[in-house]
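new request in #modeling-help
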Amino acid sequence: MSYLIGDTIFGGYGGADILHGCTVAVEKGEIAVIVGPNGAGKSTAMKALLGMLTVREGSVRLDGKDITSLSPQDRVSEGMAFVPQTNNVFAGMTVQENLEMGAYLRRDDITETMEQIFSLFPILGEKRRQLAGELSGGQRQQVAVGRALMTKPSVLMLDEPTAGVSPIVMDELFDRILEVRATGIAVLMVEQNARQALEIADRGYVLVQGENKYTDTGAALLADPEVRKSFLGG
Amino acid sequence: MSQSLRPILLFSAMAIALLAVGFGQGWSVMLVILNLCLISAVMSVGLNMQWGYAGLFNAGVMAFVAVGGMVAVLISEPPVRAGWEAGGLRIGIAGLLVAVFIGLIYAVRRFVSTKWIKNWGTAALLVAGYFIIRPVFEGGVTAVESIAAASAGNLGGLGLNILVSWGVAAVVCVGVAWVIGRIALGLRADYLAIATLGISEIVVAVAKNEEWMTRGVKNITSLKRAPVPRETNLQQAEWFQNLVSGVTGLDPTDADFKLRVIEFSSIFVKLCFTFLFAAVLAIVLFLAIRALNSPWGRMMRAIRDNDVAASAMGKNVVKRHREVFIVGAAILGVSGAMLTTLDGQFTPTGYQPLRYTFLIWVMVIVGGSGNNLGAVLGGFVIWFFWIEAEVAAQWLSVNVERLLLPYLDVVIINIGDVVLNVQDGVVWLKNAAPHFRYLLMGLVLLLALRFSPRGLIPEAGAARAH
Amino acid sequence: MVDLLNAIVLMLNFVIIPATSYGAQLALGALGVTLVYGILRFGNFAHGDTMAFGTMFTIFFTWLFQGLGLSLGVLPTALLALPFGIAVTALYAVSMDRVVYRHYRFKRSAPVILTIASVGVMFVTNSFVRFMIGTNEQRFSDGQKFIIKAREFKEWSGLSEGLKLKTTEALTIVVAGMAVAALFWFLQRTRMGKAMRAYSDNEDLALLSGINPERVVMVTWIITAALATLAGVLFGLDKSFKPFTYFQLLLPIFAAAILGGVGNPLGAIAGGFVVAFSEVMVTYPYKKFLKYMMPENLEPSGLMQLLTVDYKFAVSFIILVAVLLIKPTGLFSGKVIRA
């Protein structure tokens, strides 16, 4: 029984189904990565877990509890955190305010969490008074992840966190995500950079046309010649 | 209800309502309402082009209606010779200078490529133009306005048939709309709304203050409304008297006859207007429906429903918007000239945005945005209720007063020095009654927008949800 | 030298002081418009009439307090009535949101539909005000009229020009300053204020952060109602209350908001003052001023007025047109609330 699981989900954005019985799951202290060709429904699968589309069939369970009918906001307060692919910071607010907004639902003292995030992303501590919109792309992604972590979530979901950043920044970001995993959080990612993502993944899902094509550990998928040929460019 | 049956039923209901007024309140009252219904329908069709076809928010309907009214005055009034002699030349020169400076500014903006010279040059020309033209213009205005101030004090007009102004109004409004379109189209939808709202305030300010043109707040009364005869002339005409005696069977010597002639002359004049207006409405409606179903109209609706896709397909959205804005404005201008013709006078203070801009909006929304027949129906229905609501409110306040008559001295509020009794309440109610119809119209707009956003006669095949 | 002093006093008296207080009134109005733009993302045509609504209720409470013999001494009684006027207006604005705007928000209608809905609200509000208080002019300022009287100033300074400062002018500037300070403190320092800025900045992310949009919207309406009432009451105290005038204020207020960049509170304030100063300076006759400043043989003959007061709306309009042509995003390129 996985910590978070989207179980044989059928659904889409009101029109025709995009997901056709796809299953995605992640354990605490584990990184799961969803890869696949364009239009395979990778982001859609993640949005299904978050409650941002109509799930026609199948269920989403968090820690054994059925949350299929909860709104995204309610899932956030249940401990799920999400970093969208674009527009994922409050550009007109400072780094610190971005983190504060991440902790909006919390009524307790947030200074400790904020310090943890500053030690995870030291650059954010330095630039805490700067507007997030003025930061570089990589720094902005760090703000976005930091904001999501402010709720002290049990699940962190990232929609293509490395889209549009340089390879060096990507490596650094993946290092940080490994550190996040080490704190016992379940991490679920959708990634374009399949090879690099699978390298750090405990579990990998290859989706094709809204269905699970291959499911295995990251290392096993990387080793699978079929997967390499079709999805990792040889 | 089937799509084709619905308009027929609704228009029949409207006709029955008008007939009921005819039988109940008299045919003269009914024709007054009908004539303004027709003008309202023309306005509504004009605004519907802008909003219904293209989704443009024109909050300055009043501007075009007022321009139409001013044109009617300037075309039909006889020229004031003394005024022309006193200041006509200077005002003419000022006009010429305006043209010269506009030409210069155009030249600078067109042919200078360095950005800062272009912008500062424009600014310098604007300032220089202002200081050169103003003294020339003002001298002329002072001279004109001092001529027979009590009866004239203006230049008068061209002394042409007022029907000419209906066409000229359209042309002038095309110019005004072109300028507004250049400024405010292609930006956020509500910027156009604010810009047009501003233009309408300015047009009315011009109408109120430029006495040399339209006598401003001194008003212009007794416009010549050829070809429709005046009631007093009709009453003298032999053929008309014969007609009345033919219809009523009364002899010219009968005591009642004179009264009937007066009554008939009023109805006859109103009927003449009815035919004229109905003809204009028919033409406008025919053209509007043709335009809507042409490739141009289809493109316009495609742009409205998805301007991103349309511009991606290479459609020039701003240009199309400008076209439809101009055409709608021309129609509004015609309606304004018609209105002033019917009134036979021009009173700038009468132009109120609630009546001349936002009431027209209620007509379009209630009638059916994007559907020309709907716009016509909206014009009829809303004007009908606008008039009858006031009648109802008056009736109500009179009856409430009668009911409360025995209790006038009863005190309702008594706090400190503030003492209000029923009599004060009755006075308040009588003062408040005329405002009832505004409340009604606001509610109608909100309810229609909410519960029937596609209107009484919805646009055919429109999937657009507001 | 004396001529120069006289000229300065003249300008202070007829341009700088009136324009500053008018600017403060416009700034408060434009703040309300810009907040609705930033949070609810539509141009609120009902704002002028909301101002009239709030002012009307403040006038009613003023009359009531005057009837009860309550007063603030030298200050206008309206100040005492203001909180009550704000409360009623806030209630009205929130209910209008519930019965009118919320539906379109849930449907995610285009902003222009919300603007049309606001025209409906404008119609209703306007007629309600006409219904209750009529269309006539109302003056409700009491207390001491002047802080500095022209005659006393002349006697004190020996200048031929008198300086006067109306209580309402000083009050406008002080109260508006306090209100703006409070607003910025709220937006910068409080949880709710930051949530409003976040919502204005990035609606989707705000939702993901657990910010309750309906709360944000409700608080926005309450603040907007308070700002509108404040602007309306200060304007009415300074000049007079007439419902139609308040509708007409829509143009300078929108010009100010657009000039400052829609959704940008700082810009709205700057815009309010720019519009007010332009309006007053363009319609002020400079004849007397130039008389002091110019050598005697060069004295002007005309009024030296750029535009008559009848055309003061043209000033707002020209500013609006200039902004739309040159920089449609406004001076402080807005769209979101950045305090």
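bot summary: The radius of gyration of chain A is 17 Å.
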